[in-house]
Amino acid sequence: MEGDSFSGMANGGQVDNKLIQTFHKSFVQVQSILDQNRMLINEINQNHESRAPDNLNRNVGLIRELNNNIRRVVGLYADLSASFARTMDASSEGDSSGTLRSSDGAGRTGQKRVRPG
């Protein structure tokens, strides 16, 4: 990344270094959790194949941990998406790029793309 900024987004504007750092930090966290999930899944599979009662009982806790990790990943991606949307909204205020603002009924605004056809 040249000059710690990312060009080419938001109509050629630059996304600030803080956003890039936030994205990097979040992606590192996601990758760490996904690596942990890979190990959990391998252990769950080994325990299942062994059919040993103690190992099968252990799988209950491992599957709960896996589910919690998946929730964390979903949360991190949701936060990233919201952060990215806020940045794009702020950088394109007053822009008429073919997007429409709408309210979801809860006072939040989102963007809807106009789909051809």
Secondary structure: elements and pairs:
Blueprint: E1 6-9, E2 13-15, H1 17-50, H2 53-91, E3 99-103, E4 109-113
Antiparallel strand pairs: 1-2, 3-4
Family: Belongs to the EARLY FLOWERING 4 family.
Main location: nucleus
GO biological process, one term: rhythmic process
Which parts are unreliable, with pLDDT below 50 for 5 consecutive residues or more? 1-13, 96-109
* Cα radius of gyration in angstroms: 21 Å
What distance separates the N and C termini? 38 Å
Largest sheet: 2 strands, antiparallel
Keywords: Biological rhythms, Nucleus
Subcellular location: Nucleus
Region (Disordered): 87-117
Biased composition (Polar residues): 89-102
Describe this structure in words.
This protein is an alpha+beta fold. It has a domain at 33-89. It has two helices and four strands. The protein has a two-stranded antiparallel ribbon. A two-stranded antiparallel ribbon has the order 3-4. It comes from Leersia perrieri. It is found in: Nucleus. Belongs to the EARLY FLOWERING 4 family. Residues 87-117 are annotated as: Disordered.
